[in-house]
Design a protein that fits this description.
By secondary structure, the protein is α/β, with parallel strands linked by helices. The chain contains nine helices and nine strands.
């Protein structure tokens, strides 16, 4: 299997999952795209393709792979299998498991560029989700995850692969606890169908449930039991999800038995 971290992150985010994989003797490859910061989604996807080919050659593994991804890493993996490899389908992939994926773009990415809201939001998130000195106009990934971007249009046009099982894990703030993501009082920004802005508890502080939806994909909402938020609500925010015990447990279920059924399917 292949691990793909998210934006402004690094391979170490998978340390807890890696320990579980090693316990179960599940081999994994940990893809690092932090070394090409500033790259586009397409560039990361091509780099992922080259990495997989290199590792297949090195290890001799020629069977199907599972891709486990966080945040925009999910969309980079999707870009590889759907856009780059969509017609030839040479990439042998069994499952694509995404944690908090911005499949429909990110309202926050759009807001970063808003003359009205941008500066206030960036100040709230400085040092916790974005660098203290940060200009979204210079960030390729943020621009590509604005809902109307060319990258997202390419993904929508390509469509999902029928030979791949898509499984997405998304967190919501079921107890409306401000401690889930303190900078935004436990809420997540979203755009309404009318084009106005609002905040909702139906998200992980960064990505809403609606932004993660992809028609036909399996979806799991965590925590399954709201009381799980009582002890460590911050573990269910977007940044912490790859280290979250409940999320890791669900990933392991899918890896050990791909026939495991998700809570539901995106319509």
């Amino acid at each position: 299997m292949v691990l793909v971290h998210g934006w402004n992150s690094y391979p170490g985010i998978w340390s807890k999952l890696a320990a579980r994989l090693e316990e179960k003797s599940i081999p994994y490859w940990n893809f690092n795209h932090s070394v090409i910061r500033g790259a586009s989604v397409a560039e990361i996807a091509y780099s992922l393709q080259a990495y997989i080919r290199e590792m297949r050659k090195k290890t001799g593994w020629d069977e199907n792979l599972d891709l486990v991804c966080h945040s925009m890493g999910t969309c980079a993996a999707r870009y590889l299998v759907e856009v780059i490899d969509g017609e030839t389908q040479n990439e042998k992939v069994r499952q694509l498991i995404g944690i908090g994926p911005p499949n429909n773009g990110s309202a926050l990415a759009e807001l970063f560029n808003s003359p009205m809201h941008g500066q206030d939001i960036l100040q709230n998130l400085a040092g916790q989700f974005v660098p203290r000195s940060y200009n979204p106009a210079d960030d390729t990934i943020v621009q590509e995850f604005r809902p109307g971007s060319k990258t997202l249009r390419r993904l929508r046009k390509a469509g999902v692969r029928t030979d791949i099982l898509y499984r997405f894990i998304v967190a919501t703030n079921k107890k409306e606890d401000p401690a889930l993501f303190p900078p935004l009082q436990g809420k997540t920004w979203e755009m309404t169908p009318q084009g106005t802005w609002r905040t909702t508890y139906d998200g992980d502080g960064i990505i809403t449930r609606a932004e993660a939806y992809l028609t036909g994909a399996g979806i799991d909402i965590v925590p399954v039991y709201a009381d799980s938020l009582d002890c460590t609500p911050y573990d269910y925010c977007h940044i912490r999800l790859p280290r979250n015990g409940e999320v890791i447990g669900r990933i392991m279920e899918y890896l050990l038995d791909p026939d495991t059924q998700p809570q539901g399917f995106c319509e």
